[in-house]
Amino acid sequence: MFRICLTALSLFGLVSVAAAQPAPPSAAPTTRPAKGATPKGTPNPKQAGAADAGPCEIGLLAAAANRFGVQQVGFTMFGNEYTPVPVDSWGLDDLILSRLRAAAAGKSVRRIAYSPAAFAHAVESGSPMLRRNPERQEFVQQSAATTKCQRYVLVERYQNRFSNTNQSVEGFGIVKWGNPIKRRTLLYALTYITVYDGQSFEAIKKGPASLDDEPMMSRLIGINPISGPNKEMDEAAFPSAPAEVAANAKLRDGVRALLTTSLDRTLPGLLQQ
Predict the structure, then answer these.
(1) For every one of its 273 residues, what pLDDT tens digit does the chain have, with 9 covering 90 and above?
(2) Closest CA to 96 of 61, 143, 53
(3) How far apart (Å, rounded) are the C-alpha atoms in residues 69 and 51?
(4) Do 153 and 194 meet the contact criterion of CB atoms below 8 Å apart?
């Protein structure tokens, strides 16, 4: 009898200990993302390209070229010199884009890629002064083939005659002019703007970027030898060697200031519809 009671008590204790053990935690259900869903933290390619895929009101072809001319116009033809220098680090095309966006506030502006060789052909085919050639229009139309902008703006280098000489100045540069007795040094930033219709690609408006503060008489009597944005400089500002130009902050900032002011004063009028 005693053995039966002892066995019963032992079994009861084992049951009590088992009941006191905590139940093992159940595995949390695994949730799989829906098919095609983008995980958090991963950029959505559709959203990333939304700006480029959206409507385009103005397309920019910034073809002014990041090139700076170091030029001398001598008393005789033997003193004439011109050396082009690349100044890509100055970001002049990027500056043109920023000023166009400022002038077209509230409108979508997109930079259009183009072939430099195709543009060079278009320029060589027409007059650098009048810019009346079908090749330029064809160049813009071909460059805009993959876009659908309402208008296109072409900003290019502008060339005009230097004073009453047989020399000319173009685009961005510095020129030293005169004779051993009297010399003048001028920094210039000359650009030309043409606005094209996005459907017909006909030129709507065009004109050189200007500062609007040049008295006509000063040009006629030769006080200002350059028609367009320019600034008189000390003779010491003329680089002793063309290779020094790209790192010259004074020349860089001077050109950028002339370009900014002339675009800010010219673009709003050309963009008015």
Answers:
(1) 444 433 443 443 433 434 444 444 444 444 444 444 443 433 343 433 334 557 899 999 999 989 999 999 987 667 799 999 999 999 999 999 999 999 999 999 999 999 999 999 998 887 655 666 789 999 999 999 999 999 999 999 999 899 888 899 999 999 998 866 778 999 999 999 999 999 999 999 999 999 976 655 555 555 789 999 999 999 999 999 999 999 999 999 999 999 999 999 999 999 998
(2) 61
(3) 36
(4) yes
User: With helix as H, strand as E and coil as C, how does the chain read?
Assistant: CHHHHHHHHHHHHHHHHHHHCCCCCCCCCCCCCCCCCCCCCCCCHHHHCHHHHCCEEEEEEEECCCEEEEEEECCCHHHCEEEEEECHHHCHHHHHHHHHHHHCCCCCEEECCCCHHHHHHHHHCCCCCCCCCHHHHHHHHHHCCCCCEEEEEEEEECEEECCCCCCEEECEEEEEEECCCCEEEEEEECEEEEEEECCCCCEEEEEECCCCCCCHHHHHCCCCCCCCCEEEECHHHCCCCHHHCCCCHHHHHHHHHHHHHHHHHHHHHHHCC
CA distances from 169 to 7, 85, 101 (A): 116, 14, 28
pTM: 0.77
Contact 213, 194 (CB under 8 A): no
